[in-house]
């Protein structure tokens, strides 16, 4: 089965490589020529565990191709996936201009029945915009060609994207006809054979499912951060409370970790877009708006703790461990490290940072306003405080003895609650966590 995937970012590249891995012939299309040139040379433009080998194998075996033009493959493919970005617009709503551009390109090029499948996260009603754009382009060409639109939102997590794509909890597909359903069933047959659930539904429900899923997960994080902040005020331990409620099967343990707030390319923009959709329909999503408000506050909690413990930050050196919005990715989009570092710099502190993979992405954000250390201990030399922002595995068991000797001060702010306070205290270090 031949398919095209337009947009070769996290989602497009991972989906393309995974569909190729289960036997489809996939052409990945992107307007970014540098990205496509790199992929053709076998270089992977993003950090995602396992992606390198998957892309190389499928490209070498001839099932995965890269191009800057949909025209190169349009006559051969049954489906065109749209996996371009949907960043937040100024009012918080999803910017659909990239999706619409791909739809127009599809309308300009198709010569026979083809399905336009939206994989990007898009608000309910986008399928109408897509259909209209395609119809307009066909009308301009003076041709009548049968096409359909479908929705197939993506639930992969960066850092575990391949596993999530290959072993999904479920695949959600919005369709409007039996014909489109049978094409999508053929594409997902390898997954159905493995007994993964593929749920077919109408398109608006599929579009809404993606936002509802992300909003639910973000809600759990903000809820737990709110509880953690109160725990601190009343002398309870949020870690124990988390265990106490997470063991209730109705609640479960996932996405209940208090910390320095959620970031990334999805939760912040999707939560905001959902609230905007509500407002556009005259409905205030009160819970969703509070989820965002709590998160915005929480993203600066590490800064506030440093400030309260160290007082005037002028001339103080702060080491930041972890910059990416979560471990196993180099994605810096909406990472809580960014507002924290910006506040520290604005207060006159010097900042030394270390992240196992995100340094290059970080340079695009901070330039040379911070020092890029070569490892976690190097970052902490002469520091007045160390703040953990991303819980990479290599940060889990530092030698507190080495740190205590090389630091100027003794404060450790654990933005992800991964350390045992007693162990630090034994070495004369001062511990501050979240809600502990
Ligand atoms: N990143 C995630 O973890 C994740 C998970 C699930 C869903 N999503 C959703 O998937 C979509 C894509 O996200 P992403 O993180 O992969 O984005 P990304 O920014 O990593 O990639 C988007 C790609 O689309 C390309 N592009 C833009 N316009 C184009 C056009 N007209 N033709 C061809 N290529 C074009 C860009 O050059 C870029 O390479 C978003 O809607 C996002 O919300 C992302």
Explain the overall architecture.
This protein is an alpha/beta fold and 436 residues long. It folds into 3 domains: 2-201, NAD(P)-binding Rossmann-like Domain (Rossmann fold), CATH 3.40.50.720; 211-297, NAD(P)-binding Rossmann-like Domain (Rossmann fold, 3-Layer(aba) Sandwich); 299-432, NAD(P)-binding Rossmann-like Domain (Rossmann fold, 3-Layer(aba) Sandwich), CATH 3.40.50.720. The chain is built from 18 helices and 14 strands. The protein has helices at residues 10-21, 33-40, 51-60, 97-109, 126-141, 161-166, 178-187, 189-193, 203-234, 238-246, 267-280, 286-298, 301-310, 337-346, 359-366, 376-380, 400-406, 421-426, and strands at 2-6, 25-29, 64-67, 79-82, 114-118, 147-151, 170-174, 197-201, 317-321, 350-354, 371-372, 385-388, 411-414, 430-432. The chain has a 6-stranded parallel sheet with strand order 3-2-1-4-5-6, with helices on both faces. A 6-stranded parallel sheet has the order 11-10-9-12-13-14. Strands 7-8 form a two-stranded parallel ribbon. Strand 1, helix 1 and strand 2 (25-29) form a beta-alpha-beta unit. Helix 9 (203-234) crosses helix 11. The longest helix has 32 residues, at 203-234. The mean pLDDT is 97. The structure holds nicotinamide-adenine-dinucleotide. Nicotinamide-adenine-dinucleotide binds next to helix 1 and helix 4. Residues 6-12, 29-32, 35, 83-86, 98, 101-102, 120-121, 154, 156, 158, 265-266 line the site of nicotinamide-adenine-dinucleotide.
